[in-house]
Amino acid sequence: MWGIRLIYNSEISLSRQIFLSFMERILTGEIKQGEALPSTRELAKGLGVSRNTVCEAYDMLWTEGYIVSRQGAPSRVANGLHIKHKKAESPKDKKREQAQVLWDFKTGQPDLTHFPWQLWSQIMREAACELPIRELEYSGPKGYEPLCEEIAQWLFRSRSMEVSPEDIFITSGATQAIRLLVEILHKDGQPFALENPSHPGIRTVITDKGYPLLWMPVDGQGADISILKDKEISAVYVTPSHQFPLGGILPARRRAMLLSLAIEKNFYVIEDDYDSEFRYSGAPISPIYSMDSSHVIYVGTFSKTMFPALRLGFAVIPKPLQGKWKHYRNYMDVQNPVFEQAALAKFLQKRKMDKHVQHMRRIYGEKRNILLSSIEHTFGPSAHPWGDDSGLHVALQFPGMEFGYQFVRDCRETGIRVSPLPRYCLTQTEHTDKLLMGYGHLNHIQIQEGIRVLHQLIKFNNPQV
């Protein structure tokens, strides 16, 4: 009756099914405004349900304004409810279905198969059981204090950094830290200085706010700091321990110049230390923060040391900025979930992080060696790796070649995902002879096969290779 079909074994009550059926037909105009609905007794008889069920449905329609009723008169559809929907236009050119990615050289992806998931689950359970009830209240923008204390000790063990726990603020990864710092450090009319090339996400965070940028050229030793000498800027963002994406290490002379300018011109340096745990020849590089912490904001994350979905990072905030940080964080999302913070504190306190990083450093070092030896064996002198012996990616230079959008499309159709360097640059005409290749999440066979297929594809387009 009235096109209403009831499902008796549904989790939705019969009265609500009647309500939803009328609502949908009223909104689409199938039932016109002013049209009278059947009496509750008539509809109940036609549907084979109790009158109380229909009365409950009509009451919902009346309460939400879909019908109007008067004593002794039939219920009628209210005015102004018909919503005219435009039909979705089908695209003129359907995108071709992309081939399955078989060899995915994306960057920044750790190997999750070696993470101690059983141990982590156990620690999560322990943290949940031991967490005091008071920690389930709003705790504010600082973060779980035991985690701040463990991070301070972790930084001392892994990087020889002396940091007070009261200066450590927990974040939802490094991206949130950068977004907050852009808000805090912005000065009207003064640009943020970024490396060129750099991660597109960083410049997006800044340009989305409409703030200007100043680009620092990058060579084999990182950013050229001299370009800042005569400039007034809001802040400088750098990746000094392993420049992303080219991989250079910012030398002490450039670091000293950057700190001197920061003190002289009163700006802050945002130091993003995104993967310095994974260095395969020697100890991790000392951060700029260790030289002078007065004008440096150190940003770290556990996305690569543990797993990206954890969404926990931290920032070491100088005291003059802590008031603003708390204000902006309070009105962003207040705090991170406490259970993950408590578990991570235990993971660090039990030295499980130290053991895991040591284990993964060996595994990633082997993968890097497999990648580089495969490249040397396959490409010979026509491919040249850039950067320090660290991290989870390699920048490869192929002198005399150019890799554009067509090359990326050809790779995807072949089942390969690689990133040409120009997508990380100010313009698409820079570093056109370089590819960025991540390897952390790939096994040895995937690396070797992927390099072989990549060589065939490049050789097809460049017979001289």
Broad CATH class of the largest domain = Alpha Beta
Q: Can you give the mean pLDDT?
A: 92
Annotation field: number of helices: 13
Order of helices and strands: HHHEEEHHEHEHEEEHEEEHHHEEHEEEH
What is the domain tally? 3
Work out the radius of gyration: 30 Å
Q: Quaternary state, please?
A: single chain
- Overall, the morphology is globular
Please state the structural category. Answer: alpha/beta
How far apart the termini lie comes to 74 Å
Report the portion of residues in β strands.
5-15%
Give the number of DSSP strands.
16
Show unreliable segments: none
Organism: Anaerocolumna sedimenticola
Family: In the C-terminal section; belongs to the class-I pyridoxal-phosphate-dependent aminotransferase family.
Protein name: Aminotransferase class I/II-fold pyridoxal phosphate-dependent enzyme
Domain HTH gntR-type: 12-80
Describe this protein's structure.
In the C-terminal section; belongs to the class-I pyridoxal-phosphate-dependent aminotransferase family. Keywords: Aminotransferase, DNA-binding, Pyridoxal phosphate, Transcription, Transcription regulation, Transferase. There is one protein chain. The chain has about 475 residues and is of the alpha/beta class. The model has no long low-confidence stretch (mean pLDDT about 90). The chain has 13 helices and 16 strands. The chain folds into three domains: about 15-75, Winged helix-like DNA-binding domain superfamily/Winged helix DNA-binding domain (Arc Repressor Mutant, subunit A, Orthogonal Bundle), CATH 1.10.10.10; about 105-110 and about 355-460, Aspartate Aminotransferase, domain 1 (Alpha-Beta Complex); about 130-350, Aspartate Aminotransferase, domain 2. The strands form four sheets. It has an eight-stranded mixed β-sheet with strand order 4-11-10-9-8-5-6-7, with helices on both faces. A four-stranded antiparallel β-sheet has the order 12-13-16-15, with no helix packed on it.
